[in-house]
Specification:
heterodimer, A: alpha/beta, fumarase, two-stranded antiparallel sheet, globular, B: 297 residues, Dihydrodipicolinate Reductase, domain 2, 2 domains, five-stranded mixed beta sheet, 9 strands
């Protein structure tokens, strides 16, 4: 299934944990500096309403005057947990792409605001650079430097797995609980 | 050794390490892929991983954008000039960063300033071992931050785990470490474990275990059996690739030991992600590569 940004509330609420998706359209990178900046009241230099933020510090180079993405895998999302709910609200995001999952505050915000957490494959920097077809712009580059800037990427069929949906479900919570029970059982027998 | 020739050899070593997984790791990932159920998210994740390995190799670009801590392990003859080696290694790392085999990854913790070259206090890391040998062997591991953050050190006895100072206690710690890491270290991963030592040598020795190939056999029978038990049980936890759930949680578990003090009993665990960038080569007297390691199937 392919979904294209901007994404409607209706489409987001039709998605469920465990679903494999491909995202096409506009995706904006944002990691530690951007999340703190927006949370602290900074104005977004670009309208991301209905779009997706990607926890990623890409390697981007300019070739013949054009930005080319050389490596673009996800970074660990949990660092943005203190900020994410507010950032979803302020920017009107419909999706967050990252790795490792996020906490209860973000999960609650997803339900309230109509947003999902999309898990990219960690370490797959080349596959994920390959789906970036164009870089229409970059924002806050001077302020934060290249890896922390907001890179506007036009992607085609960016592969993700929904691991937190807008219905309060989290695959991370489920796997954690199931493996915890299994661990207790294994330790008991040692 | 000829400094320029050595630098060129080490640059090629960095390139190969960053862009192309060793055969034993790739083969183990593919075995994991085949055992995951068709249409499962676990299989999907490993399928993307497989594509990524092939694409990075074809394009000769970094497998993962986090090119990690740069760990050189050098074994050489008594006369090996460590100072010359470091100088050539530093130059090779700087060059590899300029051309993009390595990301700018070395940050001053007080000022937040990135050196931009991967050079600075503690970077890169060199381990030298000199002895009765003719040739020099250099091995390199690039270890990303996501998996490094999942490393953990236990001090036995451990009340919460009911883990005592024995084999059972050690096994409990290792399984707990796999549980705690979940998918966050980019599972499926490989564990390097050290039983004993002090806090510093324990972690160092746990990383050295990662130099072993995944298909080797521990010469110590007790440790070999422990490794096998951990592999079986950890893969029953159901954490799976990326923590999506599945059968492939661990690709390998390599355990070593060091003597300890009577008062201390540490179990030190390093977690390595699936993007297990490990390569090596043997150098001739002039510093030229005479043979590549980890090339076997």
């Amino acid at each position: 299934m392919i979904i294209t940004t901007p994404i409607s509330d209706e489409v987001i609420r039709s998605l469920h944990v465990g679903q494999v998706l491909e995202v096409s359209g506009s995706v904006f990178t944002g990691r530690d500096a951007v999340h703190k900046y927006i949370f602290d009241g900074g104005a977004s230099p670009v309208d991301m309403r209905g779009s997706v933020i990607y926890h990623c510090g890409p390697v981007v180079v300019k070739e013949k005057g054009v930005w080319v993405v050389k490596a673009a895998g996800p970074t660990t999302s949990i660092r943005e947990e203190p900020y994410q709910a507010e950032v979803i609200r302020r920017l009107g995001l419909r999706g967050v792409i990252g790795k490792g999952g996020m906490g209860q505050k973000t999960l609650d915000a997803c339900r309230e605001l109509g947003c999902v957490y999309m898990h990219a494959i960690g370490g797959a920097a080349q596959v994920l650079a390959d789906v970036v077809k164009e870089v229409p712009g970059v924002y806050l580059m001077e302020k934060f430097g290249s890896p922390e800037a907001i890179w506007h990427m036009r992607v085609e069929r960016f592969p993700v797995v929904i691991t937190m949906d807008a219905h309060g479900n989290s695959l991370h919570k489920e796997v954690d609980a199931a493996s915890k029970a299994k661990l207790a059982e294994l330790l008991e027998k040692i | 050794m000829n400094p320029k020739r050595l630098e060129a050899s080490l640059l090629e070593l960095v390139q190969r390490t960053s862009c192309d997984l060793p055969r034993d790791v790739e083969a183990t990932i593919l075995r994991g892929l085949r055992q995951e159920a068709k249409d499962s998210t676990a299989r999907y994740a490993l399928e993307v991983v497989r594509q990524n390995i092939e694409l990075a190799r074809k394009k000769q670009l970094p497998l993962c954008q986090d090119t990690g801590t740069i760990l050189f392990f050098v074994r050489g003859p008594k006369g090996l000039d460590a100072k010359l080696f470091r100088r050539a290694g530093d130059a090779a790392v700087k060059h590899a960063t300029e051309v993009g085999y390595l990301r700018q990854n070395s940050v001053d913790p007080l000022t937040g300033k990135n050196s931009g070259t991967n050079l600075g206090p503690g970077s890169p890391v060199y381990h030298f071992e000199q002895g009765d040998r003719q040739s020099t062997e250099v091995r390199l591991i690039l270890k990303g931050g996501g998996c490094e953050n999942m490393g953990i050190q236990y001090s036995l006895p451990h009340g919460g785990l009911k883990a005592g100072r024995d084999l059972a206690g050690i096994e409990k710690c290792i399984l707990d470490a796999v549980f705690q890491a979940q998918g966050k270290g980019c599972a499926p991963g490989v564990l390097g474990v050290c039983i004993g030592g002090d806090r510093a040598t324990g972690y160092a020795h746990s990383k050295e275990q990662l130099l072993r190939t995944l298909d080797d056999k521990n010469p110590d029978r007790v440790l070999a059996q422990l490794e096998a038990r951990v592999m079986k049980k950890a893969n029953e936890l159901g954490i799976g690739p990326m923590g999506f759930g599945g059968k492939t949680t661990l690709l390998g578990c390599k355990i070593g030991m060091l003597n300890r003090l009577p008062a201390s009993y540490f179990v030190s665990i390093s977690y390595m992600c699936w993007a297990f960038r490990r390569r090596g080569c043997t150098l001739s007297g002039t510093g030229q590569v005479s043979r590549w390691l980890y090339e076997g199937a």
